[in-house]
Design a protein that fits this description.
Layout (H helix, E strand, L loop, with lengths): L5 E5 L5 H12 L10 E9 L8 E9 L4 E6 L10 H24 L8 E10 L4 E6 L4 E5 L16 E9 L2 E8 L1
Parallel strand pairs: 1-2, 7-9
Antiparallel strand pairs: 2-3, 3-4, 5-6, 5-8, 6-7, 8-9
Helix pairs in contact: 1-2
Protein name: Ribosomal subunit interface protein
Organism: Methylobacter tundripaludum
GO molecular function, one term: nucleic acid binding
Length: about 180
């Protein structure tokens, strides 16, 4: 980190042990993203529960060259967050997941799905409420009246160009959504 870790305690007295745990967890974040510029952690105790212990709220702000990630763990109804160490663990676990996802996006390692395919209507069986599409690779793909969006099944004609989302079931390929 370019800027030293900043830790703030609100509604709770400073604790060397809690600070040490936060420093340990923050030190490991560099493994998941190598360009972290700064990290700020706020530990807050909420004193709303008189019959129970305090509830802890952990907020982590991580700044990278292109993005700021904010992780906020606040769970009023979970007993586990009466333990500040559990709250810290869960907040840093969430921070790790966000950093991993962000790093994956930056590297271009995100799966993309070309959900829509193009094709043409080759047969319509109006009386049976279905038709067939010829895909760009020459396959026949079944579709049902209920799959057609927009103007609907009745507006389709043989030869119309359409876009569709293909699924495969036991009977073979079918279009789950058809866009005229």
């Amino acid at each position: 980190m370019q800027i030293p870790l900043q830790i703030t305690f609100r509604g709770i007295p400073h604790s060397d042990a809690v600070e040490a745990r936060i420093r340990e967890k923050a030190g490991k974040l560099d493994r998941f993203h190598s360009h972290i510029m700064s990290c700020r952690v706020a530990v807050e105790a909420e004193h709303h529960h008189h019959h129970q212990g305090n509830q802890y709220h952990i907020r982590i702000d991580i700044t990278t060259p292109r993005k700021e990630l904010v992780i906020s763990r606040e769970h009023h109804d979970k007993q586990a967050y009466e333990d500040v160490y559990v709250a810290i663990r869960d907040a840093f676990d969430a921070a790790t997941r966000q950093l991993e996802d962000y790093a994956r996006i930056q590297r271009g390692k995100v799966k993309t799905h070309n959900l829509q395919s193009r094709g043409g209507v080759i047969r319509l069986l109006q009386e049976k409420d279905h038709g067939f599409i010829e895909s760009e690779d020459g396959r026949e793909i079944y579709f049902h009246r209920n799959s057609v969006s927009g103007a609907g099944f009745d507006s389709l004609k043989v030869g119309d160009e359409i876009r569709y989302i293909e699924e495969t079931d036991d009977l073979g390929p079918q279009a789950s959504i058809v866009y005229p």
